Amino acid sequence: MTLLALESSCDETSAALVRDGKILSNVVSSQIKLHAEYGGVVPELAAREHLKNLLPVARAALAEAKISAPEIDAVAATQGPGLAIALLIGFKAAQAVAFALEKPFLGINHHEAHLYSPWIGAFGRFQPNVSLIVSGGHTMLVLVESELKHRVLGGTIDDAAGECFDKTGKLIGLAYPAGPVIDQLAEQGNPNAFAFPRPLLHDANDDFSFSGLKTSVRYFIRDHPALLDDSQKVRDLCASIQAAIIEVLVKKTVRAAKREGVQCVTASGGVTCNSGLRKELERVCRQHGLVLRLAEKNLCTDNAAMIGLLAERKLLAGFPPTALAEEIQPGWALA
Ligand code: KG4
Ligand code: ZN
């Protein structure tokens, strides 16, 4: 089955062609530079960029896959969650393509697509797992009992992990999004230089909270302003913040996996690009005899390939197509 998928839930415009579990093309146009000036995503600007970029991106994806429109068997798009004004563009365009080609259409939950992205290229080796989804908007632990059957165990009660990277980075004066910059600086920093809280680490639930950590970094910088003029101290600060975030994410993920009796842990979403998080998950999973599957770095951040591949598996599993009159679901929570 050859599918065309579109993704426009936030600040990446993406189109992909997938077939039989494989990615034929996955073109992503990122708006990061545009929004960096404002320190965060500006919805109105995001929408205009999606409108401008969607057709060129889709054309490039078709060309790279060497697929012409009549060869498309089904169309998919992100239906939610995300910015309404941004979601609308990819979702309505995909419905229009499905209408014109008279092919089935499937609306996909963005988080569900992240959830299965660690299995891209390896669906045949699927095993029950506890999955960590960490992005700029969400931090979640999900029990995946079997393919396409999952249950959310917990999530953040305030800021997402990526948001914590971005907001503490802003306090340090780093450019948006600060996550990748902190990752880089932390590599040459001492993670034990400064002690920051590990929120909810010892709570019995699978929830996360990162706003307190952000506040404690704010007060720390207020009380030690000269520290920001010393580049080694900035690296130490980045390493210490990153260590606090990682410890909570890794310990709570592994604890949930042990409790649920699964042998596998997976992770996806933008923050899964973080090299410290990848290393620590590897170390702790090895220590506990757990199989670890991390989404490939280029599939961690938002992309249409993960949308198309999940849509293909759902259609093959007999899920009903989404009506062409259906609307976006900006607040669509993963159950
Ligand atoms: O999944 P994603 O592309 O978009 C959302 O759905 O939110 O994730 C973006 C988030 C941003 O907060 C960004 O700072 C973070 O992922 N991020 C990282 C790294 N790369 C991206 N955080 C820490 N280390 C990284 N290397
Ligand atoms: Zn995402």
Q: Overview of this structure, please?
A:
The chain is an alpha/beta fold and 335 residues long. Helices cover 44% and strands 19% of the residues. It contains 11 helices and 10 strands. The protein has helices spanning 32-36, 43-65, 84-101, 110-116, 161-172, 179-186, 211-223, 231-260, 275-287, 297-300, 304-316; strands spanning 2-7, 12-19, 22-30, 74-80, 105-109, 129-134, 139-146, 149-155, 264-268, 291-294. Strands 3-2-1-4-5 form a 5-stranded mixed β-sheet, with helices on both faces. A 5-stranded mixed β-sheet has the order 8-7-6-9-10, sandwiched between helices. Helix 4 crosses helix 11, helix 5 packs parallel to helix 7 (211-223) and helix 8 (231-260) packs parallel to helix 9 (275-287). The longest helix is centred in the C-terminal third of the chain and has 30 residues, at 231-260. The two termini are 28 Å apart. The structure holds 5'-O-[(R)-(carboxyoxy)(hydroxy)phosphoryl]adenosine (KG4) and zinc ion. Zinc ion is lined by residues 110, 114, 135, 269, 302.
The average pLDDT value, as a whole number, equals: 97
- Order of the strands making up the biggest sheet: 3-2-1-4-5
Hetero groups in this structure are: 5'-O-[(R)-(carboxyoxy)(hydroxy)phosphoryl]adenosine, zinc ion
Given the structure, what is the number of helices? 11
Low-confidence regions = none
Alpha-beta content class: alpha/beta
Tell me about the biggest sheet?
5 strands, mixed
Shape, principal axes of CA atoms: globular
